[in-house]
Amino acid sequence: MHIFHDGEDDNLKKLLSLSLAFIEDKCGEFDVNSETNINKRATELVLERTRYAYNDALEYFEDNFLSEIISLSLDLAGDSNVEE
Question: How far apart are CA 77 and CA 66, in angstroms?
């Protein structure tokens, strides 16, 4: 988004929080601070959804990222079964 000032910080934090909740609701829980591939993919989806929200194009996000959402959802479900 190339924002070079801090005037948008509160709005971006809100959008990131909402996007994190959305992706976790759709796909399952993950750790944005983890460096595993699955968590990196989940974090990327959060950032992409935030970009769509910031640019008032949120209605296109799910259609454009449906395969990534489904893939991540399946991988996170499989990952949680391994941990149990």
Answer: 16
Is residue 49 a contact partner of residue 26, using CB atoms and an 8 Å limit? no
Instruction: Evaluate whether 72 touches 41 at the Cβ level (below 8 Å).
Output: yes
DSSP character for 29? -
Q: What is the pTM of this model?
A: 0.86
The band of 84, judged by pLDDT with boundaries at 50, 70 and 90, is very low
Chain segment 2-11, per-residue pLDDT in tens = 566 778 789 9
Helix 37-54, helix 66-83: angle, nearest 10: 140
Q: How far apart (Å, rounded) are the C-alpha atoms in residues 46 and 29?
A: 12
